[in-house]
């Protein structure tokens, strides 16, 4: 692995790499992992070419190979369809083992926790990240404490229990769930791995950008649509792109088009596009209004000349029906991308003849009752 540093993005201080850190205690700064001299390398010399999974990228991940051997996931398929003159490449990350893209971040975080001999982790999640963390904790024999809003879908709760997670249900907003999880870290002496903060999570998610590059060539991708809430997906994809750029592997930077749920669209709001009046009930994975990395998220959109859309439940319903009819069995949260695609084309953010990647983030199989009740309306 290329040697790396963990830096506080608020004050620039370097933090230790041999203990678990998820934020800079002194100033509450978010952390970022950077690889020393990455710009002097070429991608091809860093790849472990014998693997067609996440281990392929071990030299640009902050964990040793030995700890990824237990669950070497990755390389989800891409399916190409034409839509209103645009070439759309659907990246099927909902096919990862726990049913969402969160597997990438959870696996790298749990592998790192194992390397650091951590026995108990704490995570707060509206569902998918909790399921992913529980799955890899089970595989790595680590105790998973998952803090979840009491009103999360019952299918997701049942799944968490079946994966041996210790479930902590919290009444209140997503922000209150987050505070309860962080409080528990002090009481339980476990490691807080929450994906809103944890820099190792972003490292795992960035492999999405590397895969898209190897599968399609990022130089010919004009835009990428990403459902966005805490920003781990947006920032992971952005980090992967910027690393590839720094290695001279790509010259083009695709526009990142974030999609948020109406009423919870903090990133859109910061960019001047408003929050959306209606509060979405269907996009239950996108209900965060105080993402700690909001400054980094704004930068990712600005630096890629991207944009941000918020979508209503009516649009989620239309998107879910459409995606299922195309054979993509995604969950409502993931279905926000369809409205974003339509808006991007009608506003000419995406032009005819362009190539656009859509990340399909979560599987509908985990909440079949909910999905079917929407599809039948
Ligand atoms: C299916 C799905 N897509 C997208 C997201 C948004 O990801 P992030 O919170 O990293 O922005 C989530 C978050 O829970 C999700 O569950
Ligand atoms: Zn700091």
SSE diagram, text form:
Blueprint (H helix, E strand, L loop, with lengths): L3 E5 L5 E2 L15 E5 L7 H4 L31 E6 L2 E7 L9 H14 L4 E5 L3 H13 L2 E7 L4 H9 L3 E5 L3 H15 L2 E2 L6 H7 L1 H10 L6 E5 L4 H15 L8 E7 L4 H5 L23 H10 L3 E5 L1 H13 L10 H11 L8 E6 L7 H8 L2
Parallel strand pairs: 5-13, 6-7, 6-9, 7-8, 10-11, 10-13, 11-12
Antiparallel strand pairs: 1-2, 1-3, 4-5
Bound molecules: pyridoxal-5'-phosphate and zinc ion (ZN).
What does this structure look like?
The protein has 377 residues and is of the alpha/beta class. The chain has three domains: 4-67; 78-100 and 200-375, Rossmann fold (3-Layer(aba) Sandwich); 102-199, Rossmann fold (3-Layer(aba) Sandwich). Helix content is 36%, strand content 18%. The chain is built from 13 helices and 13 strands. The chain has helices spanning 43-46, 102-115, 128-140, 154-162, 174-188, 199-205, 207-216, 232-246, 266-270, 294-303, 313-325, 336-346, 368-375; strands at 4-8, 14-15, 31-35, 78-83, 86-92, 120-124, 143-149, 166-170, 191-192, 223-227, 255-261, 307-311, 355-360. Strands 4-5-13-10-11-12 form a six-stranded mixed beta sheet, with helices on both faces. The chain has a four-stranded parallel beta sheet with strand order 8-7-6-9, with helices on both faces. It has a three-stranded antiparallel beta sheet with strand order 2-1-3. β7 (143-149), α4 and β8 form a beta-alpha-beta unit. α2 runs parallel beside α3, α6 crosses α8 (232-246) and α7 (207-216) packs across α8 (232-246). The protein binds pyridoxal-5'-phosphate and zinc ion. Zinc ion binds at residues 8, 10-11, 13, 24, 26-27, 29.
């Amino acid at each position: 692995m290329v040697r790396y540093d963990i830096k506080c993005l608020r004050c620039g201080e370097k933090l230790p790499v041999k203990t678990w850190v998820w934020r800079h205690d002194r100033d509450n700064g978010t952390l970022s992992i950077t690889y020393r001299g990455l710009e002097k390398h070429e991608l091809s010399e860093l790849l472990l070419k014998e693997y067609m999974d996440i281990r392929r990228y071990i030299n640009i991940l902050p964990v040793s190979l030995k700890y990824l051997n237990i669950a070497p996931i990755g390389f989800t398929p891409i399916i190409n369809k034409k839509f209103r003159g645009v070439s759309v490449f659907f990246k099927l990350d909902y096919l990862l083992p726990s049913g969402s893209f969160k597997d990438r971040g959870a696996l790298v975080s749990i592998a790192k926790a194992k390397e650091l001999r951590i026995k108990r982790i704490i995570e707060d999640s509206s569902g998918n990240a909790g399921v992913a963390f529980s799955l890899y904790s089970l595989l790595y024999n680590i105790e998973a404490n998952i803090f979840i809003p009491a009103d999360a879908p019952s299918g997701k709760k049942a799944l968490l229990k079946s994966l041996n997670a210790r479930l902590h249900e919290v009444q209140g907003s997503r922000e209150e769930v987050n505070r309860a999880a962080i409080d528990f870290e002090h009481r339980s002496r476990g490691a807080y791995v929450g994906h809103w903060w944890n820099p190792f999570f972003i490292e795992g998610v960035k492999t999405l950008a590397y895969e898209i590059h190897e599968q399609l060539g990022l130089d010919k991708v004009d835009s990428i649509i990403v459902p966005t809430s805490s920003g781990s997906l947006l920032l992971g994809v952005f980090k992967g792109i910027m690393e590839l750029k720094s290695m001279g592997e790509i010259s083009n930077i695709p526009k990142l088009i974030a999609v948020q749920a109406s009423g919870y669209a903090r990133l859109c709001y910061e960019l001047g596009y408003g929050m959306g009046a209606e509060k979405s009930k269907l996009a239950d994975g996108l209900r965060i209004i105080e993402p700690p990395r909001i400054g980094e998220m704004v930068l990712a959109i600005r630096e890629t000349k991207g944009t941000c859309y918020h979508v209503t439940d009516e649009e989620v319903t239309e998107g879910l029906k459409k995606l299922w009819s195309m054979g993509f069995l995604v969950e409502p949260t993931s279905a926000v991308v369809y409205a974003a695609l339509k808006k991007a084309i009608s506003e000419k953010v995406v032009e005819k003849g362009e190539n656009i990647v859509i990340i399909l983030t979560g599987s509908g199989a985990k909440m079949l009752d909910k999905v079917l009740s929407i599809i039948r309306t």
